[in-house]
Every structure is written in structure tokens, then in C-alpha cells.
Amino acid sequence: xxxxLRLILRPIVFINLILSCFMGxxxxxxxxxxxxxxAVSFFQTMAxxxxxxxxxxxxxxxxxxxxxxxxxxxxLVVFIWVFTCIVGALPYYxxxxxSNIYDAIFESSSGFTTVGASILSDIExxxxxxxxxxxISHWIGGGGIIVLSVAILPLLGIGGTHLMHVETTGxxxxxxxxxxxxxxxxxxxxxxxxxxxGIVLLSYGGxxxxxxxxxxxxxxxxxxxxxxxxxxxxxxxxxxxWVLIIFMYIGSLNFLVLIKTVRGNFKSIIxxxxxxxxxxxIVLISVLVSIxxxxxxxxxxxxxxxxxxxxxxxxxxxxxxxxxxxxxTGYATADYNLWHPAAQILILVxxxxxxxxxxxxxxxxxxxxxxxxxxxxxxxxxxxxxKGVFTMRLNxxxxxxxxxxxxxxxxxxxxxxLFAGAFIVxxxxxxxxxxxxxxxxxxxGTVGPGFGALGxxxxxxxxPDFVKLTLSISMIIGRLELFxxxxxxxxxxxxx
Length: 496
Description:
This protein has 20 helices and four strands. It is an all-alpha fold and 496 residues long. The strands form two sheets. The chain has a two-stranded antiparallel sheet with strand order 1-2.
């Protein structure tokens, strides 16, 4: 037990050092723009983290080389995400940018879990260094703190297979290479490359460096944070909209499949059932939403205040919002609360889908829907042919009953968590039942904005503190795909 505790402390030290480095960078950035109060706040927080790291490092000393057990892996993953969200809230609170600690925790949790929901009503009024920290939280969260730590665990004398297994999303845990640390490195190389390309393309569209970094990292991380009050609509640019559409789509694809494609195996992405179905959903719903926008009397209004009437504009705005929601990014160029009710229903459906497994997106994930659909077809066939034997296949491989049961269990737990959380939100009396449900959908599914008073043109700032804390917890639960967190509350987990 003591050995496992020491092993757990080592990656925490590493994560602390990463956070302190980024806070130090933000502190220097604050000094450049004469934001002295914010600079002091960042350096103070940095000092606290370094002291904690020194304490953890002292107690983690050990010459034994052992791997983290699966149980310790679960504990470590949950602790790192909770700890990171709390520490990440300190610059907001200490600087005075957010006077309420619950607001700071909500904003930090939303950043690191790539939810993109915000309590801020005047984002542009924040200091540049605070905006940079918001963007960095998305960047770190999108790449996956655990994936990053797995890549360096061997340097600390720790095996990281269990960590990758626990943190990686989706039904299957495919390895790109036999060495899981090498896989993690490939993921980060791709992630960094996409960010650089995104920054260059957005800069070409007229964004300054901070804007380009914020929106590129947010799109690829499928986060949704913007440093503008009107989100992406501020730029009122078709070019920027389509660039972000492409990167939101890429960010919601399986990174291992993307890596194989980049390395020359183009069939991996062409033949992937999940990606094909995911793309089909985007195309079909984008067409339908675009039609509803086009036929809307007197056109539709974007969040930039302009009225649009052409079909090309309808396609642009419709596609943007569809990709933004299904990828769980949460960017907005128009308020879908003002759209045709049928278009709103289609957007609501996307809240329940999510992106691909092994991506930066959240939600239930497309592959789980595919498995449930295939199982439903098998059940129907079994009614017609009671003695028939039917095998489910996905990407040419058979899917075991264990996987099907796991998927069914996940969806049941997801729905129970969704409605339980919505009930807690509704207890506040601050929102309608529909808005309470959309708040949980937005946070648990890492989409960000909801409906009604919590829509893309609004924020979560008016909610009571206990609701903000509930939603912050739901963000972490959703980011870690439920079971990783809930297993810690099982009495069987703690039995030897």
C-alpha cells in the first residue's frame, strides 16, 4: 500500500511542475502587459504548487521499480483531475478576476475538462494573462493530462499501462504501438502539429496570436472557450468559421486512426465504421438544419447581430452549430434558441451523441450508439429466427457480449447520472426543468452551452453556488466517462 502511494505521488509531482511552468509563463505574460496584480497572483500560485511538489517528491522517494496497479490507477486519474481543476482555479480567485471561489472552480473545471461552459458575462474585460490561462487550461485538458503523464512515467521509474487503460475513452483500447508510452508520444506530436496548423490558418484569417491560439486549441480540444463575448461570431468571418469547422471535426475523430492515416494507412480512416457513421450524421443533420434556417421567415440572426438570408449562409451557420455540438465543442455563431423548433430538436439530439472514441470530444460517443443499434437489429432478427446465431461485427472484428453489456451499462448509468444531476440543478428553482436538463447535458457531455437561459448567448453565472459545484463535479465525471469515478464509491473496489 505504501509503495503504491509513493508511485501515485510521483506523477502528481510531474503534473504540478507542468502547471507551475505554465503559471510562470502566464505571470511573465502579465508583466509584459503591465498586469502586475495578475503577475503576482500567478507567481504566488506557482510558489504554492512548487512547495507541494517538494513535499510530494520527498514522500515518494523509493528505489523500487514497480508498476501502478489498476486500483491505484483509478485513484490517481480521478485525483489528478480533481486536483488540477482546483489548483487551476487559484489564479482566477487570487487575482480577483473571480471573487467567488465556486465561480473560479467552475471556470477551471470547464477549461481542463474541455466543457467550455462559462460563468463570465464580460470575457473581454478580463486581463490578457487570465484569458491566456483559460486557453492553456483547454490546451492541457484536450491533450489529456494522463496521456502526457503516461509518456514520461518510464522516466520516473513507473509503468503506465494501467493509467492509459483507465483514462482512454471509448469501447476499445487499441494500441498503435506495443509500447504504450510511444503511443502517447505519437498522440501528443499529432496534437501539437494540429494546434500549430490551426494557429497559422486562423492568423491568416486576421486573428492576433492570442486569439488564434485560444480558438485553435479550443477547436482541436473540442473545448469551446473564446476570449470574445460573442464567441466566434465576433469575427464575422466565413473563412474562420470553416477553418474551425474542419478542426472541430478533426478533434472529434479517433486520434489513433488519425495517426495511422498520417503515417500512410489511409484505409484506416476510410474503413472505420465509427468515423463513417459520425460523418454521415453531421452531413444529414447539417443539411436539415440548413434548410430550416433558409426557410425561416425574414432570415435568421447571427450572434454578430447581422441578419442572413442566403442558402450559403444557412449552410455555413447550420453546419457550424451542428459540428460544434456533436463534437462537444460548444462554440456558437448563432443562438439556436431562436431557430425553428424542428432545428432545435435536431440540435438537442446531437447532445446525446458525442464524438468518436479516442478523441478529445465527450458525450456518449458514436461507437456506443452503433453497438446499441446493431444489438437492436440482432434482437429483431432473433424474434424472427429464434434458433439463429447472430454475431455483431465492427470494423471487421466481432464484438463480444461483454462489450455489449458494458455499453448498455454505460448508457444506463449515463442517463441515471444525467437525470439525477438535472434534479439537483432544478432544486435551485433558478431554471426551468428543460434548462436544468440541458445544463447537465452540457456539462456531463462536455458540450458547454445548453438551452433557454443557459443557451449560447448566455452563461452559467447566475446559478447558485451549490449548482455550480454540482456541475463542476459532473464535468469531471463526464470527462472520465463515469465508471472511472463511480468505481471509487464501490465497496468491492476497496476490498483486497
